[in-house]
Amino acid sequence: KQWYQRRVAITAGLSSDDNVTSTLLQIEGSVPELFHHQLLSLKEFIHWKYPEEFGRRTHFVDLLQVQQKGLSLHYTKDEILHYQEHRWKRLLTSQMSVVGSTQTNDKVARVLEKMQSNNVNFDRNNFLFNHRTTKQEDSHIMDFIHGNSPIFGNCRERMSLGDDSCYFCQNHGDDPLHQLFRCEEVQDNSYSNLLEVIVNPQDYVNEVLLSRDRTVQKRFIERIGFLMEQHQLVNELQDR
After folding, report:
1. Per-residue pLDDT, 8
2. How far out from the chain centre does Cα 197 lie?
3. Looking at residue 21, what is its pLDDT?
4. Three state DSSP letters for 154-200
5. Is the pTM of this model over 0.70?
6. Rounded to 5 degrees, what are φ and ψ at 194?
7. CA distances from 160 to 2, 82, 164 (A)
8. pLDDT below 50 — which residues of the chain?
């Protein structure tokens, strides 16, 4: 919220009187301080909104030129939602390239490509993290999207933390798909409810992220909630 308020204040400054604008430009040229992150965020937004004006790189954005060119910094709610989607997809793509190729990462990459080709945007009807979940719950949800978590045997094996066996059934080849749909030790109502709305379990990442039916996402979240409760029970038993 503070980041948003600061950016609004900075945006307003570029369209205010000369004294306010002058102060803003002095902040940009000063030594590193509190508002530099907000200024960088503002430049990223300007670059996204007017890419043809400033070339390919964000740091080419000159706030003085923004004023001189008379570029509008007013924005609508839809613009901010599209910009947030742009930043989210860019960050996710960057993180996946750092982690490297995994089965789940490749699935997410294909989903992002499909979203771009089909002009699919996140909104209140399909955004996965809009179900009144906590940050911890959102973190668990992402574990089952990207698959890079030690709760999965294949990840523990890559990290040299053990073999790839499942905590619940002890079978090898454990991964998000196994825990969600294959492990017979954790098949309850959340399992059957999710199966009712997922057409192809092998492609669940695609279906969850691109679904226009919020029932799919709600049941996916409920399934993960149950699985994380089981993980907690396993941890408590191991600590005894």
Report:
1. 47
2. 23
3. 56
4. HHHHHCCCCCCCCCCCCCCCCCHHHHHHHCHHHCCHHHHHHHHHCCC
5. no
6. -70, -40
7. 41, 40, 10
8. 1-10, 13-16, 31
